[in-house]
């Protein structure tokens, strides 16, 4: 095993540990020392791989996005429904993402720029999905660009409701109901 491979594996281990610590304590409550301890490193050893807490946070967010990534042009409404079902099987990931998103709305939060850029890309991607499905107008008359923020809001809003009361909110069923409202078949 090369030194580079060992370093990449160690970075991945650190990111997984950071994800766990952030899920448990939130970003502000998570410390580099807690992450380092979880992977058997000193804080200085962790800083060798991630020079700042902000750099580690961005790596956590990027890793989470990689887990959900589909090749360009492959995203469809029915695949979004599958993603919602997949998220229901990983509450810790959803909780971490939601907590970081909530925290990031403050002006000085280190993930604010990340989420701002991410959502611009997500809205554009959702507009593309809607355009591929419905053309330039949805059955309601909205353009894909006008409907895209609403689609994203439903996805994120369902996650928050589910996290708060998973016994009462079935994310996957509710999202399929939303697709029906858009004009998608119940299928």
TrEMBL record:
Residues 31-50 bind DNA. GO terms for molecular function: DNA-binding transcription factor activity; transcription cis-regulatory region binding. Residues 8-68 form the HTH tetR-type domain. Keywords: DNA-binding, Repressor, Transcription, Transcription regulation. Pfam families: TetR_C_6, TetR_N. The keyword Acyltransferase does not apply. SUPFAM superfamilies: Homeodomain-like, Tetracyclin repressor-like, C-terminal domain. The keyword DNA-binding applies. Gene3D superfamilies: Tetracycline Repressor, domain 2. PROSITE patterns: HTH_TETR_2. It comes from the Bacteria. PANTHER family: HTH-TYPE TRANSCRIPTIONAL REGULATOR BETI, HTH-TYPE TRANSCRIPTIONAL REGULATOR RUTR. This is AcrR family transcriptional regulator. It comes from Streptomyces paradoxus.
């Amino acid at each position: 095993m090369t030194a580079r491979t060992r370093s990449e594996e160690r970075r991945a281990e650190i990111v997984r540990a950071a994800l766990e610590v952030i899920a448990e304590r939130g970003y502000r409550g998570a410390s580099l020392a807690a992450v380092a301890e979880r992977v058997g490193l000193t804080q200085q050893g962790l800083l060798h791989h991630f020079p700042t807490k902000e750099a580690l946070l961005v790596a956590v967010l990027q890793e989470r996005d990689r887990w959900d990534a589909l090749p360009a042009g492959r995203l469809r409404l029915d695949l979004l429904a599958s993603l919602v079902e997949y998220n229901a099987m990983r509450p810790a990931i959803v909780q971490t993402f939601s907590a970081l998103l909530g925290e990031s709305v403050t002006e000085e939060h280190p993930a604010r720029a990340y989420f701002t850029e991410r959502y611009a890309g997500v809205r554009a991607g959702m507009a593309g999905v809607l355009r591929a499905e419905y053309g330039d107008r949805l059955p309601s008359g909205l353009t894909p660009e006008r409907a895209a923020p609403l689609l994203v809001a439903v996805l994120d809003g369902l996650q928050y409701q589910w996290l708060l009361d998973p016994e009462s909110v079935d994310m996957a069923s509710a999202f399929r109901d939303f697709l029906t409202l858009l004009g998608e078949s119940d299928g």
